[in-house]
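WARN retry 2 of 3 for item q-0093 after timeout on previous attempt; input resubmitted unchanged.
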Amino acid sequence: MNKDVMAKDAVYLIQTYKRQPLVIAEGKGAIVWDINGREYIDCIAGIAVNNVGHCHPKVVSAIKRQAERLIHTSNLYYTEVQVELAEKIASLISLDKVFFCNSGTEAVEAALKLARKASSKTDFIAADGSFHGRSMGALSVTSKERYRKSFEPLIPGVKFVPYDDVEAIKNAITSKTAAIILEPIQGEGGVHVPSDGYLRAVREICDDSDTLLIFDEVQTGFGRTGKWFASMHWGIQPDIMVLAKAMAGGFPMGAMVAKESVAKKFQSGDHASTFGGNPLACAASLGAIEALEDGLVDRSEKLGKYFLEKLGDLRHDYIKEIRGKGLMIGMELAMDGSSIVDKARDRGILLNCISETVIRFAPPLVITKEQIDRVVEVLA
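OK item q-0093 returned
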C-alpha cells in the first residue's frame, strides 16, 4: 500500500519534497501508525508542530465544536473566537497587538513589512545559519545559499553575521537598518543555543541604535524549549515576534505579535490575509494552548533534561556534541546523519537530519520516559 501512494504522489504532486518512504495514516500522543498499521515513536512531531501530541482531545474537541458553528467569514467581519485568541496570545507574550496568518513564512513576511513601515528604514540583519521561510521576503533573511541561489535577486539590503557574535552585529548596523531578525535558538541551522549574554546584548544594541528587534519563535514557541517561548530563558522582549508551527496543535496557523508603538504603524490595507485568524484555526489554537496549560511546558523542561542525559550516555566516536533546551535537541555528528535516520525508522523511531550532520529531536511534549528510553536504546 505504501508503494501505491508513493507512485500516485510522483504522478500528481510537484516534487518539492524529499520524503521518507513512509505513509502515515494515524497518530495519537507521541505515536504514529503507517498505512500498514506499523507503530513508530515520533521524535519529529510534524517539525515541532504537534507539541501537544497527535490528535490531542482538547484540540480535536475545539475543532469539532467550531466546525459545526462557523468555519470561515474572512476578516471583513469580527468573530469572538479571534478576539479571544488575540487576547490570550498577547497575555502569554506580554506584547500588545496580534496579526493572524497561516504559517511561519507568512508571519515573517508580515514582520519584515511592519519593520520597514514602523522604522522608515529599509535594511535587515540576520544570522548565518538562519532559517525564516521560503517566500521571497522570508528567503531574503534565510542564510543557506542552496535555498536562495535559484531565486535571486531577493530583497536588497540584508546582511548576514555570525550567530552569537555581538561585535558582528555592532559592526553591521547602519542608519538604514530597520531590524535585526534572530531565532532565540536556531532550529534548521542545527539547534544552536546562544551564550547567556547574547540576546540581552542584541536588545541593548537595538535600543541604542533605534533598531527594531524581531524574534522568530516559529519553531521554539509554545513550550518546545521548556518555556512558553525560548526568549523567556533570557528574559528578553523583542519589538516583534513571529509564531506558527505548534500554535494550533497541528492546524495551519501563524501570527505576528508586536508592541503597540510598532503595531500602530500598520494601517488599514497595509497587510491582510484572507484565511488569517479564521474561526476554525483560532478554536484549534485555543484548544492547543489549553492543553499546554495542563503542565506540558514544565514537562518539556523536565523531560528535555532527561532526554539530554540519556543521549549523553551514548558512546559513539562519531557523536561530536549534544545540545538543546527542553525538547528541542540536536545531536551533531562527524558524518552524514541520513543513514541513522533510515536505520531508526526501520526500528520504529522517526527522526530527521538537519544541516546534513545534526539529528534533531523534537518529539511531542507528551512523550513518556519509557518512549525516550526506547529511542535512546535504538540509537545505542
